[in-house]
Amino acid sequence: MPHSALDHTSALRRLRKLVPHRPLSIDEALHIAELQASHLLMMHHVDAPPISEEVILSLPKIRLEHVTSPLSGACYWDGREWVIEVNQQQRFTRQRFVTAHEFKHIIDHGYTDYLYPPIACDHQLDHAEYVADYFAGCLLVPRVLLKRAYMQGLQSVHDLADLFQVSERSITIRLNQIGIVDATPRCMGRHHAVRSTQLAAAPAGSPGDQRWP
Q1: 4, 95, 108, 175: which sits with the fewest CB atoms below 10 Å from its CB?
Q2: Phi and psi for 42 in degrees, rounded to 5?
Q3: Is 4 helix (H, G, I), strand (E, B) or coil?
Q4: Which superkingdom does the taxonomy of this entry point to (predicted)?
Q5: What are the CA-CA distances from residue 187 to residues 8, 30, 90, 109, 181 (Å)?
């Protein structure tokens, strides 16, 4: 749990300052996303799972609303504060993931031209959604904490999912992304491999939307 609420403006400014003012490659955008997740956890002095959504929701001018919607989630500025909407009909772990995913979009506001410049790609990924998924995984299942739990003997996907309060699929993906478990054939390219582990918290109809329960 976070120790105290942070100033909304300074917290977002600190996270956004991690973005270089130049067009980034997708690999650089992923690296920035993990840095932002790590910095947010450090701001709140979080050093043990599960990661509470309060690391996001304790920020001033951030409001969470549970709605009935065909989408997993959405976010928008209502003129006074940022609103994160999550589909209340989805499972608890899914709602946690979507909250983190949508917060990444809030962080990205005003920086998308740097983070996701139009480039020719040999895949069908929406880079903004793709990186928001990755950010959510990094925030809820941080690299250091997952490695620590695994090295201390907690190696069951079920038990790790219970510890981090995420889906078993999320744990499998993070184990693969971090390199603790290699579930990707060696012949697959990096982007193909990451695509195969994308978390689909994106709106319905976007790339990868049907890959996650």
Answers
A1: 4
A2: -65, -35
A3: coil
A4: Bacteria
A5: 44, 22, 36, 36, 16
Distance CA 72, CA 201 (A): 6
Determine the Cα–Cα distance for residues 46 and 52; give it in Å rounded to an integer.
9
Residue 110 and residue 16 in contact, taking contact as beta carbons nearer than 8 Å: yes
- Among residues 105, 126, 86, which one has the least CA distance to residue 33? 105
- Condensed to tens digits (0 to 9), the pLDDT of residues 16-66 reads 999 999 999 999 999 999 999 999 999 999 999 999 999 999 998 999 999
Count of other CB atoms within 10 angstroms of residue 119: 10
Q: How many residues does the chain have?
A: 213
Q: In angstroms, what CA-CA distances link 200 with 71, 125, 163, 210?
A: 11, 11, 22, 7
